[in-house]
Amino acid sequence: MLDQSKxxxxxxxxxxxxxxxxxxxxxxxxxxTLDVISPIDGKAxxxxxxxxxxxxxRAVACARAAFEDGRWSRMAPxxxxxxxxxxxxxxxxxxxxxxxxxxxxxxxELNMAIKAEPGSAAGTFRYYAExxxxxxxxxxxxxxxxxxxxxxxxxxxxxxxxxxxxxxxxGAWKLAPALAMGNSVVLKPAETASLSxxxxxxxxxxxxxxxxxxxVVTGQGSVAGEALALSMDVDVMVFTGSGATGRRLLxxxxxxxxxxxxxxxxxxxxxxxxxxxxxLDEAAKVSAMGIFRNSGQVCVAGxxxxxxxxxxxxxxxxxxxxxxxxxxGDPLDLSTQIxxxxxxxxxxxxxxxxxxxxxxxxxxxxxxxxxxxxxGGYYMEPTIVTDVKTRDRLAQQEVFGPVLAxxxxxxxxxxxxxxxxxxxxxxxxxxxxNLSRAHRMIAxxxxxxxxxxxxxxxxxxxxxxxxxxxxxxxxxxxHALDKYVDLKTAWxxx
Length: 494
Ligand code: NAD
Prior knowledge:
The protein has 494 residues and is of the alpha/beta class. 38% of the residues lie in helices and 19% in strands. A 7-stranded mixed β-sheet has the order 14-17-18-13-12-19-20, with helices on both faces. Helix 4 packs across helix 5. Residues 161-165, 170, 188-191, 221-222, 225-226, 229, 240-242, 245, 248, 264-267, 299, 398, 400, 426, 464, 466, 471 line the site of nicotinamide-adenine-dinucleotide. Keywords: Oxidoreductase.
């Protein structure tokens, strides 16, 4: 049970200027810093170090040295497991501090962040810690005169670049399997959400992770991120963020050492509601949260509502009714259901989408405005836009904000066509009481995730990844481990 007075005590705790976390401790960069501005009130509350390419190279060199001398990569699996389990415990012991720090940085409502950030990160570290000593190599069914052994070896140095929407959760999706398999990591968090990941690195050291195995470099994507992705000594890049940056990473790989790049990118996920859905009011309520939680800054957000024409008016009215009950405001206030937009840039981008929607003849059925400007923070009304046509900007481009685009369909075939008319293929949902139709839709919709009669809510046991331009890798589940191991064959003549 969260206690508002404890949260209020933490909300203005001084955060000292942050350095880079390299080789198990805090290191200076070349003196350049970046203000950390809280989206809660628009005020700077600490600074980050802007890592220069030379700082990134230093972090990579430490990660390489740690990998090569085997302090972690050749540690007994049972010992690695113990350290990662201890880290999970430390995350839980520090959950409220981590969550409040993260919310001050990125604006997610604490009610959600407490579970989605430290809660999920602890669970993810525990899951991969428990898995790491259950991964076996193989003996190939060869001619008996030889022995073919397939070893699973760590890849070496992993570069990880993550976004600002759920830094601890997404960070843990990369770090936990990478570390579990014995790799060293250099992590570059987003400019507007680095603080909780820097703290995580400190907790990892406290848990017993050897120095140099996990390094965190902060600063601009176009400088520190680029240097990491161009490094000749990084073996694999894992990334979550926008398609534009994902494309650059592939170019950097081609220009450097052909490192593998696993990309988790954006979405424009269709939430498809048939008139035969069992409980339309429940569907409307869940659909509202499926787009508006964390102000729509969720990669899998159901941002396109495709609704059967016969129930359009009734259903949109129900979504609007539920949306109007959601309180937008200070994300550290426990009565808030929707917090702040991450940055002024992001907010202005969202409002630009509203302007273009009006210009394209769409109807703003609810919201559309910046609110609570007097706080200095970045808040936006949950917004519902109807009369969206399939070539309109709102039907095709990811807003990554609290904006729901509504389209209609008449038949199941049309629903599938509309759903797939997108460069993206991350998430989706179908609401129907017809079991056969649900299975046909699961088969027909091109997406990495199809919800049926729900939206959101998943756990570490199932993979998350996209198809088409939503990405090419999976986080979570045992499948994610494949990204962090190389297969090495030993061919032994007997
Ligand atoms: P972004 O691509 O702008 O930034 C992501 C990270 O890349 C940041 O750390 C940034 O500093 C870094 N970066 C930026 N330019 C770089 C460059 N030239 N070289 C190397 N690194 C660089 O994305 P964002 O705005 O932080 O995040 C939002 C996007 O992330 C949305 O598109 C969202 O859908 C996506 N996302 C996807 C998932 C998923 O699992 N598929 C999850 C969350 C968010």
